Amino acid sequence: MLNELQRSHARKISIIEGCFSTVWSSFTGGNYLTGFFIWLGTSPFLMSVYGALGPLANVIQPVFLTLLSHRIKSKKKLVVIAVALFKPLYFVLVLTALMNSGLKIWMALIILLFFQVASSVAGPVWRSWMVDIVDQQNYGRYFGFRNLITQIVATVSILLAGYLLDILGKGFQAFLFVFITGSIFGLIDVIAFTHQDEEKSVKTRIINYHLFLELLKAPTDYRNFLILISIWTFSMNIFGPYATVMMINEFRYNYATLGLLSITSLLSSAAFQPIFGRLGDRHGNLKILRFTLLIQTMLNIGWILAIPTMYYMIPFQLVLGIIGTAGTGLLSSNFLMESAPTFGKTESFALYASFTSLAAFGGNIFSGILFLAFSGIHFKFLIWDFETYRFVFMVSVIMSTFAMYRFLKFSRR
């Protein structure tokens, strides 16, 4: 058993590790990864496939996680191996641009899927590892503070990566330099994981696949939450990657501008993470989560009415950061850890990742179908150009409103 000094050390290392991971993701993910695939020449429909790869990886993740858990009994070892398979290697994606034009996009998608599967394997095991070192009554306070630190780091990293892409010309050399830089921090992140303390007393398999069915059969708060959040996730992912695509293709934003908008969201999120964490600890994560889901669903109307001016986009991103990342993201994660049955914590996290990701996968693919269906429709109304993107957003808003209404009726047993 870890003593309190070791658990405290593990929590501190986790914050340091989170900073390195944040720099990695800031340089290799988000708007810049989407921008890379747009630069590569990915079609609008394949962009929906691109958006669905992460969710697809989480859907098939239990298969790989179950197989690995038969061989690897240490949570720490499994996380280190999984993370080492993708974070230091992300620059390989850019090298696909050197291939024949007919193959490069598909090869990039295949490589990204491999990276996403490795990431999805690490996710639930890392979450279970953190449950061992963070007391339940302090989830909101600790993760709120951890997220505050990592988002401050993200603010600087995203801005720097965006300016580097613009300065270096937004082409092959620019993406290669930025992704190699991110991969170096990914390697440092792997090393940081090796210094985090682990509970040594448990010698059983990390994953017991027989518990998956038990978790679905048991009439628990966890199961109800899993179903409702999956429905909401499907409707929200109908947006697909098209908000970023619209900002690049229609609004003509450069990467520095995209970075500025991301930073606006991150700063507001960083400021409110500790606040939402304490509110969840004091009043209950579910109660505050209902409120943030309601506001976040309504905020999506803002994408339908979006205009290129920064006088609109910066306040909009500010509120999205406060409600979406700081509120819904933190509170849903905390309620998941709180409601997961004690007889299968890691299995609960893996099942949650699979169900919500299956919903996200379906939402992304559906968004691609909607994009094809609405393609070619365009008209101007007052100051807005209503094109394909906005019609897709409308469908998402309608369906997420229904899903949000069902979630508001959810109460604990």
What do the pLDDT scores average to? 84
Low-confidence stretches: none
Shape: globular
SSE string: HHHHHHHHHHHHHHHHEEH
Number of strands: 2
Please report the first level of CATH classification, the CATH class.
Mainly Alpha
Span between termini: 32 Å
* Structural class by sheet pairing and helices: mainly alpha
CATH superfamily: MFS general substrate transporter like domains
Helix fraction, binned, reads over 70%
With strands numbered from the N-terminus, the spatial order across the biggest sheet is: 1-2
Mind summarizing the main beta sheet? 2 strands, antiparallel
**Total of DSSP H or I helical runs spanning 4+ residues:** 17
Integer-rounded radius of gyration: 21 Å
The percentage of residues in β strands lies in under 5%
Task: Describe the structure in your own words.
With 413 residues, the protein is mainly α. The protein has 17 helices and 2 strands. It has helices at residues 4-28, 30-40, 44-71, 75-84, 92-95, 104-133, 139-167, 172-193, 210-217, 221-236, 242-249, 255-283, 285-299, 301-304, 310-339, 345-374, 388-408, and strands at 379-381, 384-386. It has a two-stranded antiparallel ribbon. The mean pLDDT is 84.
